[in-house]
Amino acid sequence: MSNVYVADQPSAAREGRPSGRLLEVEDLRVEFRTRDGVAKVINGVNYHVDAGETLAVLGESGSGKSVTAQTIMGILDTPPGFVTGGEIRFHGKDMLKMSAEERRRIRGEGIAMVFQDALSALNPVFTVGFQIAEQFRVRRGMSRRDAKIRAAEMLDQVKIPNAKQRVNEYPHQFSGGMRQRVMIAMSLALDPEVLIADEPTTALDVTVQAQIMDLLGELQRERQMGLILITHDLGVVADVADRIAVMYAGRIVEEANVYELYAKPAHPYTIGLLESIPRIDEKGQQLRTIRGLPPSLLKIPSGCPFHPRCPMAQPVCPEKLPPLLQLGPTRASACHFAEELVNRD
Amino acid sequence: MGRYVLRRLLQLIPVFFGTTLLIYALVWAVPGDPFAGKCGERACPPDYIQFMTEKYHLDDPWPLQYLYYMGHLLTGDFGQTFGGRDIGEIIAQAYPNTLKLALVGLAIEAVIGLTAGILTGLRRNGFLDNLVLVSTLFLLAIPTFVSGFLLQFILGTQFKIINPTVSSEVPFHELIVPGFVLASISMAYVARLTRTSIAENSRSDYVRTAVAKGLPQRRVVGVHLFRNSLIPVLTFLGTDLGSLMGGAIITEGIFNINGIGREAYRAITTKESATVVGIVVVLVLVYLLMNLLVDLLYAALDPRIRYE
């Protein structure tokens, strides 16, 4: 683990060779201009996802994981949110430079999104069948009848019992888990290449959570989609994700494949996250936590933004922002002491 | 649903009796002599007063009079004025005129109010938004009798664009200005209610979902945003028809429209209590039925509301 080099900063596309990546976010910067000042929500995020691959984006509330997803989808509320830099390439083409119409065509067909709270994300006054079928009608020019039949098939694919009857029901007539299945069916209707699931199980019971995650994993494998799974729950991602990107204060602080990350985290923040999972063999002991609070995005700490909370902080930490260092073919960490962490026993 | 409508219709019965009793008591409590000035310069002859008193049970206590009145009313008889005219006939003549006026007002209110509200709700803080904000404030601040006389004077007397008063056939086109005057305050309400509702719903999650589905902007707004935003506005418009009819008295007076407002005013000043009660009874029924209609409309528009 000696070959340490800085993550390839100049983009492959700029050098004239296509990267071959399905979806690639590079040095994305987003700020929220609020009455209290400018909040730097995303400060140079890099990640990518390929076909058939699952990337989990992990982070606390306010780490910028959802805003990144909204920016990719083009549903960022502007104002207050503004993209101030970076690229989002889909099939090598920068979406931020596309016209509104071009971007609209990608939504649903190229990249689709599953939202956290299906009850508020579904329109309460239309049947679920209408809401799924309208995509077939508007985007595929299908007749009302055919679109309805396809909508029922979609409900069937996400394993909703009695799909033919339930297609005529309204969102409030479904249970939480079933409603999230409807949401998934709706997002998959146009057969997207990338699916972004923004905390798809947070609003659900634990038992239902597992079912939804299994379903997502299954559909992803069947369709060979790229899946970006946004979550704050380490337990949820362990089974499904191929790679994990950990976000803190609008940056990726660690990226690794699942086994590496769980076996040997290379960033103190990730270590803290893993230690704060309740474990059955430590029953009766106090749960470990990460001290302090996530930083205010209006005033991000100097140097490494994690230093005020970091148990390993050294004098260099408030001075210098650590770049995301590539530690191996599949892993990177933004810590001054990443190498030491990786090489420890 | 059917049972709900039935229950609501049954609820109308106690409300109907309660309101009519209240109105009867109030009219009875107004001081004055119904036969003062009825017989020209002279006082009325005692024989006439005695005859009328007996005919209309004026010596009986008012609760008993109320029972007599209701007894007739339930057979469809509104009674007679002291002059011997059928009150049912007066109502049948006056009501269509007021209803016409109120409908014209409601149409103006809906078209202008909704348009202004939708445009400003979609583009907040622009020039149009501020213009509508100021003009609705203006409309809300001006009482009907001021705007009525002002428009009558400017459009009718000065520029002679309209007839200052409405002719006795009450044609629809002559009701446009009176309808505007009558509905001006509600129109401002509708504009503001629509604006708020649109603005609130345009930030909602399901609108964001509709965008994320890749639907064109006009479908996101025209289908997903409007359907939800217009529910509260439509219910306001529904209940407002009753308010417009009840509030038409000033507008009818200014533009000389022979409607229920004028009839009620005349009846109150001449102590024709049976006429007052008759007019108000019909108005109460309109209110109650419009309310029921609005509740049913609400359930039709919002599937989350179901009446058992």
Molecular shape of chain B: flat
* Helix and strand composition category of chain A: alpha/beta
Based on the structure given, which CATH architecture of one domain in chain A is correct? 3-Layer(aba) Sandwich
Order of helices and strands of chain B: HHHHHHHHHHHH
Considering the protein shown, what is the CATH homologous superfamily of the largest domain in chain B? MetI-like
> Would you count the extended β strands of chain B for me?
0
Low-pLDDT residue spans of chain A: 1-18
Instruction: Pick out the low-confidence regions of chain B.
Output: none
What is the level 1 CATH name of one domain in chain A? Alpha Beta
Q: Strand percentage of chain B, roughly? A: under 5%
Topology overview:
The complex is a heterodimer of chains A (345) and B (308).
Chain A: E1 5-6, E2 23-34, E3 37-49, E4 54-58, H1 65-73, E5 81-90, E6 93-94, H2 100-106, E7 111-114, H3 118-121, H4 128-140, H5 144-157, H6 163-166, H7 176-188, E8 194-198, H8 206-223, E9 226-231, H9 234-240, E10 243-248, E11 251-257, H10 258-263, H11 268-275, E12 325-326, E13 332-333, H12 338-343
Parallel strand pairs in A: 4-9, 4-10, 7-8, 8-9
Antiparallel strand pairs in A: 1-12, 2-3, 2-5, 5-6, 10-11, 11-13, 12-13
Chain B: H1 2-29, H2 46-55, H3 62-74, H4 87-122, H5 127-141, H6 144-158, H7 176-202, H8 205-212, H9 217-246, H10 249-255, H11 260-269, H12 273-301
Helix pairs in contact in B: 1-12, 4-7, 4-9, 4-12, 5-7, 6-7, 6-10, 7-9, 7-10, 8-9, 9-12, 10-11, 11-12
